[in-house]
Design brief:
Length: about 220
């Protein structure tokens, strides 16, 4: 366990940040989050992070980037493990994390799609990916009875899927019953409920409004 406080930098609605926060909370690792403005990023992000993206984890003088690499780092410094010991399970875990990150990109596309045609196309892609995840999912956790790194990765996706439903957008889990169960389980966990700032719903809805996308027109926001 690293004793110094880890420092995270990102913006409030970033799903990759949320997965790191869930991981840190599960491991009871002390941390601070600084919410930054993506347009006016602090100098250090452009100077030392080649891809210029957040989230970033500052450990002493080191700046780590790429959320899955950061989550692996947190795993390595912690005594509580969320990575399965079995190498085959571990490989599956890593593979599903990549798939979930692709699915998050599809979700982002439906948030920003400017017209009905693009929205419908992206929605189909997203629905197919969610059905693939549903086929692979177990309950109460994605790989079975124990929480793993896949759960901390899929929770931010399910959180946003639920919020989209709450604002009278599409019910994206209508054909994904196991994911619905997984969502009910994960989204009731304290560490997951507390992994976003109080302003999250307002910020997320505000972003959809700012995009002036097809979704903003068909939802009650
Ligand atoms: N694969 C990266 C994705 C990071 C990413 O796309 N971050 C977004 C915020 S959620 C970002 O920094 N976007 C700003 C940009 O690309 O300039 C990760 O997992 O960390």
């Amino acid at each position: 366990m690293v004793t110094e406080k880890l420092q995270l930098f990102s913006f409030s609605t970033c799903p990759y940040l949320q997965s790191i926060i869930i991981n840190l909370k599960e491991k009871q690792q002390p941390f601070d989050v600084t919410y930054i403005d993506l347009i006016n990023k602090p100098d250090f992000t452009n100077m030392q992070i080649p891809i210029g993206r957040v989230p970033i984890l500052k450990v002493g003088t080191e700046l780590l980037f790429e959320s899955s690499a950061i989550n692996e780092y947190i795993e390595d410094i912690s005594t509580k493990k969320l990575r399965p010991e079995d190498p085959t399970q571990c490989a599956h875990t890593r593979a599903w994390i990549v798939f979930i990150q692709d699915t998050l990109i599809s979700l982002y596309k439906i948030l920003v799609a400017p017209n009905e045609a693009e929205y419908t196309e992206y929605l189909e892609n997203l629905s197919t990916q969610l059905i693939t995840l549903d086929r692979a999912a177990s309950t109460p956790y994605f790989i079975g009875k124990n929480m793993s790194l896949v759960d901390i990765e899929i929770a931010p996706l399910l959180y946003r899927v639920q919020l989209i439903k709450d604002i009278k957008g599409p019910n994206l889990l209508v054909n994904a019953k196991k994911l619905q169960q997984l969502s009910n389980n994960l989204l009731n966990k304290k560490n997951i409920l507390e992994s976003v700032p109080d302003s999250f719903n307002k910020d997320f809805i505000g972003k959809i409004k700012d995009f002036d996308s097809h979704l903003s027109k068909i939802t009650h926001i």
